[in-house]
Design a protein that fits this description.
The structure is a homodimer.
Chain A lengths: L10 H11 L4 E4 L6 H8 L5 E4 L3 H15 L4 E5 H18 L3 E7 L2 H4 L9 H5 L6 E3 L6 H11 L7 E7 H5 L20 H13 L3 E5 L6 H12 L3 E4 L6 E3 L7 E2 L4 H8 L4 E5 L23 E4 L7 H12 L22 H11 L4 E6 L5 H6 L6 E5 L8 H11 L5 E6 H6 L3 H8 L3 E7 L4 H10 L6 H7 L8 H7 L4 E4 L2 H13 L4 E6 L3
Helix pairs in contact in A: 1-2, 1-7, 3-4, 3-15, 9-12, 10-12, 13-21, 15-17
Chain lengths: 523, 523
């Protein structure tokens, strides 16, 4: 088409059509007036499934879950700067998960911006810190090309969320041109030969080498290579938090770096070589008075095989090849615990989960202090994928589960959520009900920000008085999770004993569609 | 104290003590690990009431409501950048309301920042666009001084939200010094004599002058001056949306600028002079294809008596004095409608509200398309204050009501909320229950983003197909607001007829404490 020629396609249609052409298959949306032309463009695009969220943090968390499971970005629709802010915490989490995501942010029409109408804000300023790429479609003719650029940028150099701002006039005007050039899906960087050779030399000289893995090293293939390196004498650990790992029977089970810095440092004591693949050197989640930030023992040499922009599975395979090793460490057997009995606890929940979780399940873990026992016990459960909160902004579990279920309707999704975490984005339950999402949500109900009670002691902030206790407790009034879920259309039950929970979980997993279990555990 | 001398007070204590000394009386908080020393400092500060919110958007909306009612800023506690983002939409609304607010954002300890831990983010970058002032306490000794600066900056030049970042080490280290200098509470600017004199000349020459008012002109005193100007032949209108206005019997009732641009322009046709007091020239909320942005008729001269940084009540009084007028237009009589009958509707809800609202009530209006009828009918109700959504980011009504109730425990607060709007920040109901907040929340339940169905037609985006209809509808499943509220400890009932609603509202108002009424109205 000649430059400047008008088409009969709107900018919104060019944007949506381009993303559909590139394989984007889902849009998680909370639209407003400035996004109406995007809504009708999506209406006419059968290749993109539109899912309504009642709060933008649900939309962005779901887009994260969709991408972690499908491998490609979903788009979101956010309403100007305020909509971006509402979705922002889960965009932060997605940035830390290195998840591709295309946030389409509607803005005022370009000529309207100068009047500073009530919803006007500095979107670029607010969104840039958590965007790996950000541009505004200030001319309708650029809508298709910039949509393609946004898609490409979401894959890297490091994958992550990108922001594509669409002013309302660029959406409604005709003259949109879908991108029709060649655009291959960007791949992660191949590992550098020199880094692999140097690693092999360092390992040969090390007494106590450890390899911290993340990214593609946590796929089934990556873990096969990790098992070989383990058999060759390298201790293998994952970051404390990662986006997704293949786990369960038949998979190699690496150790996991401890959350608390002092535990992690004790555990790593004596390591003289730390290799990194798909990640950076580990650091403490928070700083505490007198405790270390960098979790590397003194005198330990650190060597990187590549950061989050590198194909870490390939790096591990290359290192094994360079070292000339091929024997594998043991993979996890299939082994399930007996039916738990007695009072319900984080441990008995974990046992039940390990017993009943079906092959191919996907777990979304926002369980804060209560999900570690589930994590440990499912090491030998049926093969499954485990997804974690990577950015520390709680309120990700239910949205992430929604997105995972939309991406993989044939797989069972298990959401583990703290009660404090779940309240942030409880609106996700409504979208699960609307979509018939096959998610069993387990809320650990202890009427407390339990982790904060632990952290209060660790920070040395002193003994909490009544006002401080009030800030860490969710009792008074206690939240009725069964009523809350059912108010939004999700069938729900409460369990207070291990036997109850085990039966209820088995039922929930057997039935398709969303269910919630309020698991009452000690505070 | 000599420079560099150590005190036995932490930075957190200096910050909290300084704000208490300056009269800050409430903290709406959603704290995390990095705020633990602030939590214990608040625990030891009886002058500041701490209120826990389960989502940061509740905390910031409540701080807005507290300040609109009390006149001074509340503080919030937000957990790093992610917490700021969660609270961001209601901070945007507060900026547009010109509400003073002190957002205290915990951050990582300064030496920890360089390690880019998972919760690290560019807080200054994200928060600056909606902050009238932003600084970080990078040295513990500055905590008190910067807290005082933040307090002062929240009052102006234009009042608004400020951001005070407190790194964890500046919170926990000893060496905090409370501010103990003289700091008067900043006042709004006095009107400029020249602007008043020019306005009087312009009015004398105008055929059809209109005065748009906002800010202190909407207080009882400001409206008295407005009534005098009205009697002198000047049409008086408020902005479409404002932070708070004194209304009801005995108050002058100005007209209100229409929301839709075409309606507003028709209404203003023929005006040859537009005076502005406490505001800027009116602009359309959104742009639409082929419709105007600036709501000023062609050829109409615009003259400002002062923007939001000016005491507009004083400006109106000065103009009346300059014009030598003192007779007042009629004030609203006390006149209540008869008990409504038949199907429940926005109109019958308004009639019941006008009948039962007690003197001194405070209304928080986030009713989107359904609250206009309540607004109109309460013009002659008992004297009350009406607060509006100023920034267009729905989800403000319930948090705003919570804050208003904390500020004025002896006044009845009425929250009007759309069902779509209410879902954004439904967690506010839990805080209302915990605080025993005297709020009657009326949710207009139409299972729809009704305003978007209207806007879809107005933007010319075409007829909605099934996918688009799905994006604008809240049915499938319908949300059970009674169960939702009761799950969070707020007694609730549904009303489907005018008679039912009238009785239920009378009961809710008679009883202290939080109540919710699900008012089922046509979609």
């Amino acid at each position: 088409m000649a430059d400047g020629e008008q088409t009969s396609m709107t900018g919104a249609e060019a944007l949506v059509g381009t993303l559909a052409d590139l394989g984007v298959a889902a849009c998680f949306a909370n639209p407003g007036t400035s996004e109406m032309h995007l809504v009708t463009a999506l209406d006419r695009e059968p290749r993109i499934k539109s899912v309504l969220a009642l709060f933008e943090g649900v939309a962005t968390g779901a887009a994260d879950g969709f991408a972690r499971v499908s491998g490609g970005p979903a788009m979101t629709l956010l309403h100007l700067g305020a909509g971006y802010l509402n979705g922002g915490a889960n965009i932060h989490n997605a940035r830390r998960a290195h998840t591709p995501m295309i946030n389409v942010i509607g803005d005022h029409a370009v000529p309207h911006l100068r009047y500073d109408a009530p919803l006007t804000s500095n979107i670029v300023g607010m969104a840039a810190p958590n965007s790996r790429w950000i541009k505004s479609v200030d001319k309708v003719g650029d809508a298709g090309r910039l949509a393609a650029e946004a898609w490409q940028a979401s894959f890297g150099p490091k994958p992550g969320p990108v922001s594509l701002i669409l002013p309302a006039d660029s959406a409604w005007l005709e003259g949109g041109v879908p991108f029709n050039g060649d655009m291959a899906r960007p791949a992660l960087n191949a590992p550098e030969t020199q880094a692999i050779e140097e690693a092999a030399r360092l390992v040969a000289d090390a007494d106590k080498p450890v390899l911290i893995i993340n990214g593609t090293a946590l796929t089934e293939d990556g873990l096969k290579a990790a098992a070989v390196l383990k058999a060759a004498g390298i201790r293998i650990m994952t970051d404390t938090f990662y986006a997704k790992m293949a786990r369960g029977a038949g998979r190699f089970a690496p150790e996991r770096l401890q959350y608390f810095a002092e535990g992690a440092m004790e555990d790593l004591e004596g390591c003289d070589l730390m290799l990194l693949a798909g990640t950076d050197a580990p650091v403490a989640f928070f700083a505490y008075p007198g405790k270390p930030s960098l979790l590397v023992p003194e005198g330990c040499h650190v060597h990187s095989l590549g950061d989050a922009g590198t194909d870490s599975a390939a790096a591990l395979a290359a290192l094994a090849a360079k070292m000339g090793v091929s024997a594998s460490a043991d993979l996890a057997p299939l082994s399930k615990p007996d039916a738990p009995t007695g009072p319900l606890s984080a441990a008995t929940v974990g046992a039940s989960l390990a017993r009943h979780m079906p092959a191919g399940a996907i777990v979304a873990d926002d369980g804060v202090s209560n999900s570690l026992m589930s994590y440990i016990q499912t090491t030998t459960a049926e093969p499954h994928d485990w997804m974690m909160l990577t950015g520390g902004a709680i309120g990700m579990g239910m949205p992430l589960s929604l997105g995972a279920a939309v991406a993989a309707p044939d797989r069972k999704v298990i959401c583990l959520s703290g009660d404090g975490a779940g309240m942030y984005t409880n609106q996700a339950l409504w979208s699960m009900a609307r979509e018939g999402a096959d998610v069993t949500t387990i809320v650990f109900v202890n009427h407390s920000y339990r982790i904060l009670n632990i952290e209060l002691a660790r920070t040395g902030a002193g003994n909490p008085g009544p006002a401080a206790q009030g800030m860490l407790g969710l009792g008074n009034p206690e939240i009725n999770w069964v009523d809350l879920a059912q108010a939004m259309g999700v069938p729900a039950v409460e369990a207070t004993t291990a036997e109850d929970f085990d039966a209820v979980l088995a039922n929930s997993i057997a039935e398709p569609g969303p269910r919630l279990i309020a698991a009452v555990v000690p505070g």
